[in-house]
Each structure stands twice: as structure tokens, then as C-alpha cells.
Amino acid sequence: MYELLFWRYLDEIYLNNQEVYEALIEKQEVEGLAILQTEVIVNRINSVFSDWERVDENSWKNQKGKGAFQVITTPQSVKIDCYGTEGKTMNKLVEIMEEFKCPLYDPQVPERYDEMSE
Asked: Out of the domains of life, which is the source (predicted)?
């Protein structure tokens, strides 16, 4: 499994990304993060991946190739667990989240890919 996590900071706020990640994984509310329109985001993911099988409310499976992913939301975050998913598919998910001004935090590295990163 490869984990992708997304959130948006409120204006003029920037916190320790690893600490934010750990809090969000525990489903804790983090002061300084925006409330996301998670239903709109999931609908957008579903429309972009309309040719994938929607296994359940939060999971998609590639019928024409390899890979599957599951979307787990909190009011402040979107976590996408990728299972055997190709890089181009993960990039498409990252692009969708960028539409909502939520840059990728990659906990495997760990690094957040936004304008504050060096």
C-alpha cells in the first residue's frame, strides 16, 4: 500500500507536517487547517475515475489494468490508500486534490509538496 494524504492550511498558518499527519491519521481536529468539501472532492474523484469500478462508497478498482485505491476523509483531510496503483494514476489523484488547493503530503518520504517546501 502507498499512502497519500492531503490537507489545506488556513492563510498565514504553517505547522509541522509530520505532526499534522499523525494527528489526522488519529482523526483528530488540527487547529489551523481548513474544513474541506469532502463530498465534492469524492464526487470529483468519482467523475475522473468513472471508467473504474466503484467497489463501494470509498473504493475504486481498475477494471482494465492493475491498481485500486480507497479514499478516507475527515472534515480536514483526504487520505488515499493506493494498492498496486501506477504512478500516473497517483499523479492524477494529486492533480485532483490540487484543484482543491490541497497539496500532497507523502508520509513515505516524508515530505509535503507545496510552495512552503524547500
From this structure: Bacteria
- Whole-model pTM? 0.94
Q: Is residue 118 part of a domain?
A: no
Tell me which residue range forms the domain holding 69: 2-113
Q: What is the pLDDT of residues 55-65, one digit of tens each?
A: 999 999 999 99
Rounded CA-CA distance 90/20 in Å is: 22
User: The domain that contains 89 carries what CATH number?
Assistant: 3.30.310.250
CA distance 78 to 104: 10
pLDDT digits (tens, 9 = 90+) for 44-58: 999 999 999 999 999
Q: H or E element: which one contains 45?
A: helix 38-48
Q: Is residue 84 part of a domain?
A: yes
